């Protein structure tokens, strides 16, 4: 096993079983040398994504965000924020207080997105969003105010302006028709107009990684990277303008939305994909797309574990060879089930979960499942570290620094709720980027407060808006 933590979980598993188990888990255990190679591949793909001509076919899209400034402490006012990035959708009222230099979440509301709506007509989805926003405005007595809106839309988009963003493709299980290739801000405004019972002010389109970076940057001026490890995964960072060949301008920096979830879509990660990764990809709503995301993010980790457990059961290594109907059902082993397997010192919660899955287990079975969860989680954290090292090493080289000190704003349920993910990610990135001193700051409502901050900065810079100073080259 590749971590001290895993070895602690091996206690109680007979030696002969351990040898056999190692054979199953070995494809998930990546050496430091292999991680360095993966990191190098991503750096190469980042350069391709920034190119004026090469970006069209680049798996890592490196999308310009047209965000050129961070907060300076003079921003103030009330803002609405919408956050769509997974199976739930949030509406927030955010207040920026200049005197205290604080970003306050005044109130928020969570709306669920039914599965059929994730796969149905796009108009239905945006009508649902507009309805949630309208209910929130009405219930919080905000009607009559035309507040600026920060719209966090956490899917790969081609940003044309700060308020114009074209959806490239759906990810994270969404497949709504009539949205890909369309301006999502326009679709939202049209849905609000169809209701006709409230108005919104200017709109700033914000990716969740950018929001995370901006919310943390308000507190820490050295925060130049935003990273999400949740239902999906992505990162952004401040790139030198001279390297962003698709946008006019040589001076200063621009925030780049890497869309690193697409890393490997050209087959560059085939050597580390396991048969279980391939099965997850083939069963997804978008086969062949977002390969890296499917290896490390919360939407898929539980399913990778489930497929491994099914294989171990079929081979009569687990549960006396008897799988339950529940275990055989795709999606039945959710990622949040992994957390108690790893965090609990006793096996009580683990045993409860196995029983709930309809399995007949013994203590050795429970320990084996724990090691499987730990190994697949560990691979996720280490691959994420390889990707983050690619960014930090690039920033350091861009600036010709012997040593880089930077802060990463982080959000996402896997990073926040997994008991060991952050610790392993940080330890691994130190090995892969030894010349970079990286501080990790957990974002507080980054996709909400950060969206408000982007909107506030854009308002502060108006009318010489950053989105009009740097025009895309196509």
TrEMBL record:
The keyword Nucleotide-binding applies. It comes from Takifugu rubripes (Japanese pufferfish). One of its GO terms (cellular component) is mitochondrion. GO terms for biological process: glucose metabolic process; glycolytic process; intracellular glucose homeostasis. Gene3D superfamilies: 3.30.420.40, 3.40.367.20. Residues 224-457 form the Hexokinase C-terminal domain. Coiled coil: none annotated. This is Phosphotransferase. Its EC number is 2.7.1.-. Pfam families: Hexokinase_1, Hexokinase_2. PANTHER family: HEXOKINASE, PHOSPHOTRANSFERASE. Pathway: Carbohydrate degradation; glycolysis; D-glyceraldehyde 3-phosphate and glycerone phosphate from D-glucose: step 1/4; Carbohydrate metabolism; hexose metabolism. It catalyses: D-glucose + ATP = D-glucose 6-phosphate + ADP + H(+); a D-hexose + ATP = a D-hexose 6-phosphate + ADP + H(+). GO terms for molecular function: ATP binding; D-glucose binding; fructokinase activity; glucokinase activity. Keywords: ATP-binding, Glycolysis, Kinase, Nucleotide-binding, Transferase. Residues 21-218 form the Hexokinase N-terminal domain. It comes from the Eukaryota. Belongs to the hexokinase family.
């Amino acid at each position: 096993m590749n971590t001290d933590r895993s070895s602690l979980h091996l206690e109680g598993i007979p030696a002969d079983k351990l040898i056999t188990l190692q054979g199953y888990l070995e494809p998930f255990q990546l050496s430091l040398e292999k991680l360095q190679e993966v990191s190098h591949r991503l750096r190469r793909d980042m350069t391709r994504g920034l190119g004026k001509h090469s970006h069209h076919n680049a798996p890592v899209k490196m999308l310009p965000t047209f965000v050129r400034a961070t907060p300076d402490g003079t921003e103030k006012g009330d803002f609405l924020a919408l956050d769509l990035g997974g199976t739930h959708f949030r509406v927030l009222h955010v207040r920026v207080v200049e005197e205290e230099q604080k970003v306050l979440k005044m109130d928020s509301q969570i709306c669920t997105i039914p599965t059929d709506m994730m796969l149905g007509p796009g108009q239905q989805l945006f009508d649902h969003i507009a309805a949630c926003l309208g209910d929130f405005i009405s219930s919080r007595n905000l009607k009559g105010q035309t507040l600026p809106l920060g719209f966090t839309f956490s899917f790969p988009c081609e940003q044309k302006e700060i308020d114009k963003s074209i959806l490239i493709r759906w990810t994270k299980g969404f497949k709504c028709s009539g949205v890909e290739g369309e301006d999502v801000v326009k679709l939202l405004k049209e849905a609000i107009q169809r209701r006709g019972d409230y108005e919104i002010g200017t709109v700033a389109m914000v990716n969740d990684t950018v929001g995370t970076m901006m919310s943390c940057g308000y507190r820490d001026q050295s925060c130049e990277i935003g990273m999400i490890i949740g239902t999906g995964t992505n990162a952004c960072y401040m790139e030198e303008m001279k390297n962003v060949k698709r946008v006019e301008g040589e001076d200063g920096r621009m925030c780049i939305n890497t869309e690193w979830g697409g890393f490997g879509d050209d087959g560059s990660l085939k050597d580390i994909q396991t048969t279980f990764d391939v099965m997850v990809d083939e069963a997804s709503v978008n086969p062949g797309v977002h390969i890296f995301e499917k290896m490390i993010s919360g939407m898929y980790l539980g399913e990778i574990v489930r497929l491994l457990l099914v294989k171990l059961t079929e081979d009569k290594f687990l549960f006396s060879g008897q799988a339950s109907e529940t275990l055989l059902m795709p999606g039945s082993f959710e990622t949040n089930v992994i957390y108690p397997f790893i965090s609990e010192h006793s096996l009580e919660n683990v045993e409860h979960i196995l029983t709930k899955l309809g399995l007949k287990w013994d203590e050795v079975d429970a320990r084996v499942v724990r090691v499987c969860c730990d190994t697949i989680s560990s691979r996720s954290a280490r691959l994420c570290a390889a990707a983050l090292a690619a960014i930090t090493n690039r920033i350091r080289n861009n600036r010709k620094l012997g040593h880089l000190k930077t802060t990463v704003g982080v959000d996402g349920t896997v990073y926040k709720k997994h008991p060991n993910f952050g610790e392993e990610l940080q330890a691994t990135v130190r090995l892969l980027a030894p010349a970079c001193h990286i501080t990790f700051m957990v974002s507080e409502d980054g996709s909400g407060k950060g969206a408000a901050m982007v909107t506030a900065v854009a308002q502060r810079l108006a009318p010489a808006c950053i989105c009009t100073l740097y025009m895309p080259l196509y």
